[in-house]
Amino acid sequence: MPVPEAESRACYSMMGIKMNRRITHRTLSALIVDQLRQSILAGVHVAGAQLRQDALAETYNVSRIPVREALFQLEAEGLVRISPHKGAVVSELSLEEINDVFDLRAILEPRLLAHSLPLLDPSDLDHLEAIQIRFRNSIATRNIREWGEINAEFHLALYARAAQPRTLAIVASLLQTSDRYTRLQLSNTAAMDTAEKEHAEIIALCRARKCEEACGFLAQHIETVRYGLLSVIDRSLTALQRGGVEVSR
After folding, report:
1. Residue 85 CB: number of other CB atoms within 10 A?
2. Of the chain's two ends, which shows fewer C-beta atoms within 10 Å, N or C?
3. Could you tell me the CA-to-CA distances from 88 to 41, 97, 174 in Å, in that order?
4. Last residue in a domain, options 90, 112, 131
């Protein structure tokens, strides 16, 4: 069932997008998913915050239907929890989820690189360098919104030649989930410098066709990010405890 034209135009206008075709509920909900995802990742909606359908519908000037669909999608991505009594709530940072995500990444990504690296051509490597420049620029300008996106783009570009579409789809989902964590882990200068240098080293190893070394270094890079992130969270929990707030680890 198409969304009323006035509703579509209003939402598109708020999001700065020109409407030039008929909009369905599915298309409209996808736009709201993107807006809410970015707001959660940027910390506008903090962990534990309630996302009320009526308030969101009013904010985006739409009915509740595309909002409800958007919240279900965000729940599937792990950014939102939906319960019968509380409705939609922004998910807490979970140590169990972090370890689960990074365990899978450490297994699957080196395997993808092993299949992709021998087939990367000069244009693929130049593309990686271009992404690296954008990553460096986003760090220099502290463009937080771009950090996770460009990081995921870099990793997926490494695996572009791997003929393993199911594994690629899983890794793409894991990278999207870890976007929120990547922004947190890169919240200090040392972590940003490390990430930039390690990405550059991975490109150098790919150019040198040192497949085994590149895969090993990639696994090490993923672990560096994991432990850096866990350290950030541990410091945050310790600070809360010192302030008299009861927290669970």
Report:
1. 4
2. N
3. 16, 19, 22
4. 90
Query: What stretches in the chain show pLDDT beneath 70?
Result: 1-26, 41-42, 77, 144, 183-188, 235-249
Same domain, 72 and 163: no
Which conformational region is residue 210 in: left (phi greater than 0), alpha (psi within -120 to 50 degrees), or beta? beta
Tokens, residue 36: 């809410």
Strand partners of residue 51? 88
Q: 247 lies in a domain?
A: no
CA gap 31, 8 in Å, rounded: 11
Kindly list the distances between the CA atom of residue 10 and the CA atoms of 14, 72, 146, in Å, as whole numbers in the listed order. 6, 22, 27
Domain boundary, last residue among 90, 122, 143: 90
Residue 248 burial class via C-beta count within 10 angstroms: exposed 0-12, middle 13-18, buried 19 and up: exposed
The DSSP symbol for 91 reads P
On whether the pTM is more than 0.70, the answer is: no
Segments forming the whole domain that contains residue 199: 95-242
pLDDT of residue 88: 94
Cα separation, 239 vs 247, in Å, equals 10
